[in-house]
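Let us begin with a simple case.
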Amino acid sequence: MMIVIKTAIPDVLILEPKVFGDERGFFFES
C-alpha cells in the first residue's frame, strides 16, 4: 500500500511506501 501525495504541479505525485515497524525493525511494502 502506497501513500499518494499530490503536489502543486499537475500530474506530479509523490509515492511513499507505508512503513511497518516492530521489535525486529522496519520493512515496507513495495
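The second case is a distinct protein. As before, the sequence precedes its C-alpha cells.
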Amino acid sequence: MKILRVRMKEKGVRWEPVPKEYEQLGGRALIAKLLLSEIPPACDALGPHNKLVFTPGLLGGAIVPTAGRLSVGAKSPLTGGVKEANAGGTAGDTLGKWGIKAIVVEEQPAAGDFSILVVDGDSAELVPAADVRNIGTYATADRLQERYGEDATVISIGQAGEYLMSGAGIAATGERDQRSNHAARGGLGAVMGSKGLKAVVIKKALGRAVRMHDDKLFRTACKEFAQALITSPKLGVKGSQHLYGTASIVGAVNEMGALPTRNFSSGRFEGAAELRGEKLREIILAREGKVGTRCMPGCVIACRNLFTDRTGKPVVGTVQYETIGLVGSNLGLDTLDDVATLNYMCNDFGLDTIETGAALGVAVEAGLAKFGDIDSLVGLLRQVGEGTVLGRMIGCGCVTTGRILGVRRVPAAVGQAMPAYDPRALKGNGVTYATSPQGADHTAGNAFGARLEVNPLGAEGQKELSLKLQIIAAMLDSTGLCLFARPPIISKPQLMIDMINGIYGWGWTLEDYDRSNREVLRTELEFNRRAGLTRNDYRIPEFMREEPLPPHDTVFDVPDSDLDSVFDTL
C-alpha cells in the first residue's frame, strides 16, 4: 500500500511507502496516529500546519459488507481537538482497491486559490477548480462526473466549506445517482476549504481487488459475518433498519422522552407521529421514491432512502434520524417535506445537519425565526449559501451562534452540537458527549441500544457503559465498518480478527485486537491534551444540569468525578 501526499502551497503530489508505524492502522486509528505524529496539536485548525486525511478502514476494498466507509480527519475547528468523521459512498472501497492507505493534504495556497485533486491509480494531479467555485455539492458532483466519468467518486465541499464555516462537512458520491453521503461532523469541510481543495476525484478501480494473505480464512469469516447480518431480525430484509432506515427509532426516542424539541426544551414532540420511519416509508412509496437502498457497494443492510416531492421529483437522499431530530422536532417542524427541504439545503451548501439544526434552534430562541415556521427557517438557512454575516454565524455552528446572540441554552459539548438524543433522558449518551475525544458525537458511543441494560434516566453505571461503547466505536471507525454492523462482531470478535488476518497475515489475537481499539482512544486523548483541552472542556452545559427536561423532569446528574474517571481503566 501507499500514501499520497498533496502539497497545496507547491501544487505538488508525492507517493510514498507506508511508514512502519502506520502499517497496522486504518480509518480513525490512522488519523489519530498521523495527527499526533505530524502536526503541532496546538496549531490553528484552519492554518497551514493542520493536515486533512482521507483514509479507508482496514477492511476497505475487500468484499466485507458495510466495510467501505471513508474516514476523513483533521484537527477540528469546532472542538479544538482530534476529529474523524466517516461517510458511505464509493470512496473507501475505491481507495482500498487502489491500495491507497491515505491521502494526506498539507499546507495552504494563497487565499481563494482552489484546486481539484484527481487520482487515477498510481497517478495524481492538481487541476484548477475555477468552474466549480461558489456552487453547491450537487452541482459540483454533476460537473466533475460529467468530466471524469459517471463512475468516478467525487468528494467535495459546498459554499460553507469555501467560506471556512466551522459547521461545514464533506460530501461524497456513491453508486448510481447518490450524491449526498457526508462526513459531516467537526467542521472538516472548513479544513478542506482552508487547504484550497474544492474536490477530490477518484477514478474507479476497474479490475482491481485487495490481495489476500489467506483467502480461505478471510472468505469463511466474511461469509459468516454477512449471513449474520442478513438473518438479523433488525438488520435483515424484514428488519426495521431496512424497511424504515434510521428513522425507525423516532417513535422510541420520543416515547423515552429524549427527542430534541424546540431547542432541547422538551424530550417529547407532539408531532413525532408525522416524522416516524413508518410515515417516511409510506410517503416515499406513495410518491414512487426509493427505500431500502444501499449507501456502499456490497451493503446487505440497505437502510438508505430517496425522498421525493409530491410530483415525484427527487428532493434528497437520504432522510435520516439525526436530521429529523435536529431540523425537524428541534425546530418545531412536523412534516417530512419541511425536513427534506432543510436537509437538501444543508447537503448542497455542505453543512452538517446536526450542527446546523442546533444553530438554527438557538437562533430561533433568540427571535430570528419562529419554531414551526418553515419559511423563516429557509430564509435563515439560505443566507449560509449567500455568505452573509448572519449566514456565516449559522454556518459556524451552535456555539458561535449562541455567543453572538447571547443565548445561554446552547446544546453542545466540547464545542460541538449534540445529536438527537437529549442527555438528560439518555444519560449514557451524555457521558459520551462530554468525554469522547471526538466531542458530542452519537457515533462515538451511542447508549440508545443499551437502554434495557442500564437505566437511561439514572446516573449509575453510565460511565462504564460509555467506555465500553466508545471502545467498540473506535474499532468500527478504524476498520471501515458501519455502526449498524456491530452486533455480529460484538458477539463473535474472532470474525473481525479472522478477516483482518486473512487480508494482512498479521497473526492478530484477541488481545492484539482489544489493545489496538483502546489505543485509538489513548492516542486521541493525548492529542487533545497537547492541544490544550482540560477536564473543564469535557462537560455537559450547565443548563442541562439545572433545567428539568419534560416529560420525566430529569436533569443530567452524572457527577463530574464520573466524567473525569471514564478512561481510568482504558
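The two ends are 31 Å apart (CA to CA). The mean pLDDT is 97.
Keep these points in mind for the review questions at the end of the chapter.
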